[in-house]
């Protein structure tokens, strides 16, 4: 069972719709027990970083998500959900994130002649080959964001060039982030979600 | 580098896709989900649904339509027509829409743009503008109520104000070009894209493959919307994209 963490963010239902369409067993939940026992966890998210962290805090989910990541459960953060995986964001001040992967969330520069937000279909390039990354190589996926992640190169599987190199897929062991919206990226996006499902099915991790 | 977007527009009335000329002689052409899925297969980058249901009490039909489409079609969905307040936007976004387009209501109550942007983010609020060239003033004038009523707003100024108030995208229909199949109104889009920094979607006038290449090469628009050429099967989205690739325009 994949749990989609339900904390009242915009794309939660669309992520669920895509999983339902693919026939993937899933459930929206904010229940710590269900999240802890899940075979896989998806953290969706749109909007502002601080508001999302506050919403997770209200539901006392931050330690739960951190524990789930630590115990090796496959986890996928989508869009803002990916940014939340990192240490901190500079959006409206300085907000601490989930600190599952080292790095910061910073604004896309506006002085490079690109429009911000980065909104639309953009081309992905694989930086480090990985089963979940390779299907996106030279494929367009759908982005909507004004901030991006600054992290060490070894965490970045896929990038998209938007004046700066934007990490579009990151991974640290069982924790994966997608900056684009797989649930809005047509067939290639659905393929990415299917690949995550396979990862969940094949996960050989021991729960401590 | 972002791909230029090709966006079919579907007119929806009471849960069915209709087509006609200037909202008269409406004919039923099918189920929105089936048509949307067909466009997805052809390579559409986004879909715009225009709710043309006339009566207010039937408005929730569009919410059900979007709910169904969003469970089968996985690309950005924009919904416009008859959006009066933030709760209309909320209902559509919860149903699976990614963006809501406001037109007449935003002219009457510009604060609606700001309220929507503050609550859902600018990326969820599209300002739709119907513009017509006024030869006397040599400017583009904004019309409301489906193009039936002139306002004293200048389209470029209104676009700037809408963006200042929080609109994340502009969907601009040239009333002079709409239905003529003589190409997009490139002069209008040049003026608009110079005036604002948000994406601009061109609408109205396309009739042949090279109309798309022309608007993308000669102005800085991000997307081009079309209805009848796709509905009536005169052009397919894959043909359009092939032509754009040949002409050096980046598409998906």
From TrEMBL, chain A:
Documented EC number(s): 4.3.2.10, 3.5.1.2
Record InterPro entries: Class_I_gatase-like, GATASE, Imidazole-glycPsynth_HisH
Top-rank lineage group of the source organism: Bacteria
Signal peptide: none
Biological process terms in GO annotation: L-histidine biosynthetic process
One function term, GO molecular function aspect: lyase activity
Keyword Amino-acid biosynthesis listed: yes
Protein's pathway: Amino-acid biosynthesis; L-histidine biosynthesis; L-histidine from 5-phospho-alpha-D-ribose 1-diphosphate: step 5/9
Keyword vocabulary terms for this entry: Amino-acid biosynthesis, Cytoplasm, Glutamine amidotransferase, Glycosyltransferase, Histidine biosynthesis, Hydrolase, Lyase, Transferase
Main location: cytoplasm
Catalytic activity: L-glutamine + H2O = L-glutamate + NH4(+); 5-[(5-phospho-1-deoxy-D-ribulos-1-ylimino)methylamino]-1-(5-phospho-beta-D-ribosyl)imidazole-4-carboxamide + L-glutamine = D-erythro-1-(imidazol-4-yl)glycerol 3-phosphate + 5-amino-1-(5-phospho-beta-D-ribosyl)imidazole-4-carboxamide + L-glutamate + H(+)
Segments forming domain Glutamine amidotransferase: 4-187
GO cellular component terms attached to this protein's record: cytoplasm
Localization in the cell: Cytoplasm
Gene3D superfamilies: 3.40.50.880
Pfam families to which the protein is assigned, alphabetical: GATase
Residues at the active site: 79 (nucleophile), 181, 183
Complexes and interactors: Heterodimer of HisH and HisF.
Protein name per the record: Imidazole glycerol phosphate synthase subunit HisH
Species: Lentilactobacillus hilgardii (strain ATCC 8290 / DSM 20176 / CCUG 30140 / JCM 1155 / KCTC 3500 / NBRC 15886 / NCIMB 8040 / NRRL B-1843 / 9)
Species classification: Bacteria, Bacillati, Bacillota, Bacilli, Lactobacillales
TrEMBL record, chain B:
Keywords, sorted A to Z: Amino-acid biosynthesis, Cytoplasm, Histidine biosynthesis, Lyase
Catalytic activity: 5-[(5-phospho-1-deoxy-D-ribulos-1-ylimino)methylamino]-1-(5-phospho-beta-D-ribosyl)imidazole-4-carboxamide + L-glutamine = D-erythro-1-(imidazol-4-yl)glycerol 3-phosphate + 5-amino-1-(5-phospho-beta-D-ribosyl)imidazole-4-carboxamide + L-glutamate + H(+)
A Pfam family: His_biosynth
Localization (cell): Cytoplasm
Keyword Lyase: yes
Group of enzyme by EC: lyase
GO molecular function: imidazoleglycerol-phosphate synthase activity; lyase activity
UniProt cross-references to CDD domains, sorted A to Z: HisF
Known EC number: 4.3.2.10
Gene Ontology CC terms: cytoplasm
Active site positions: 11, 130
Quaternary context: Heterodimer of HisH and HisF.
Cited function: IGPS catalyzes the conversion of PRFAR and glutamine to IGP, AICAR and glutamate. The HisF subunit catalyzes the cyclization activity that produces IGP and AICAR from PRFAR using the ammonia provided by the HisH subunit.
Family recorded in the similarity comment: Belongs to the HisA/HisF family.
Name of the featured protein: Imidazole glycerol phosphate synthase subunit HisF
Originating species: Lentilactobacillus hilgardii (strain ATCC 8290 / DSM 20176 / CCUG 30140 / JCM 1155 / KCTC 3500 / NBRC 15886 / NCIMB 8040 / NRRL B-1843 / 9)
Gene that this polypeptide is encoded by: hisF
């Amino acid at each position: 069972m994949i749990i989609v963490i339900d904390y009242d963010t915009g794309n939660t239902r669309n992520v669920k719709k895509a999983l339902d369409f693919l026939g993937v067993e899933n459930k929206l939940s904010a229940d710590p027990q269900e999240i802890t026992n899940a075979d896989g966890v998806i953290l969706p998210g749109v909007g502002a970083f601080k508001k999302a962290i506050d919403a997770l805090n209200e539901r006392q989910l931050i330690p739960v998500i951190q524990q789930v990541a630590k115990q090796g459960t496959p986890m996928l953060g989508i869009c803002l959900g990916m940014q939340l995986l990192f240490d901190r964001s500079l959006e409206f001040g300085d907000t601490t994130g989930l600190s599952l992967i080292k790095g910061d969330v910073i604004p896309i520069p506006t002085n490079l002649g690109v429009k911000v937000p980065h909104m639309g279909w953009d081309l992905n390039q694989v930086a480090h080959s990985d089963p979940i990354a390779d299907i996106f190589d030279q494929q367009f996926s759908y982005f909507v964001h004004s901030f991006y992640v600054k992290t060490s190169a070894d965490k970045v599987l896929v990038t998209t060039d938007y004046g700066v190199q934007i990490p579009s897929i990151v991974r640290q062991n069982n924790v994966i982030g997608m900056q684009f919206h797989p649930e809005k990226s047509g067939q290639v996006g659905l393929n990415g979600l299917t690949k995550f499902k396979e990862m969940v099915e094949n996960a050989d991790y021991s729960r401590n | 580098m972002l791909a230029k977007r090709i966006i079919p527009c579907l007119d929806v009335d009471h849960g069915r896709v209709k087509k006609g000329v200037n909202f008269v002689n409406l004919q039923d052409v099918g189920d929105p989900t089936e048509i949307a899925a067909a466009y997805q297969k052809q390579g559409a980058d986004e879909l715009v649904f225009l709710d043309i249901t006339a009566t207010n009490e039937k408005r929730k039909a569009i919410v059900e339509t979007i709910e169904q489409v969003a469970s089968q079609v996985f690309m950005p969905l924009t919904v416009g027509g008859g959006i009066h307040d933030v709760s209309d936007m909320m209902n559509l976004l919860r149903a699976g829409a990614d963006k809501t387009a406001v037109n007449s209501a935003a002219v009457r109550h510009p604060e609606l743009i700001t309220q929507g942007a503050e609550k859902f983010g600018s990326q969820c609020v599209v300002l739709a503008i119907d513009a017509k060239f006024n030869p006397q003033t040599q400017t583009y004038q904004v019309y409301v109520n489906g193009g039936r009523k002139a306002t004293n707003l200048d389209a470029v100024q209104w676009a700037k104000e809408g963006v200042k108030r929080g609109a994340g995208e502009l969907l601009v229909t040239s009333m002079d070009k709409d239905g003529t199949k003589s190409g997009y109104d490139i002069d209008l889009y040049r003026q608009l894209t110079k005036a604002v920094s948000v994406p601009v979607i061109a609408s109205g006038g396309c009739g042949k493959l090279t109309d798309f290449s022309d608007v993308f090469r000669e102005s800085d628009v991000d997307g081009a919307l079309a209805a009848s050429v796709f509905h009536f099967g005169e052009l397919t989205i894959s043909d359009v994209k092939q032509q754009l690739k040949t002409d050096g325009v980046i598409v998906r």
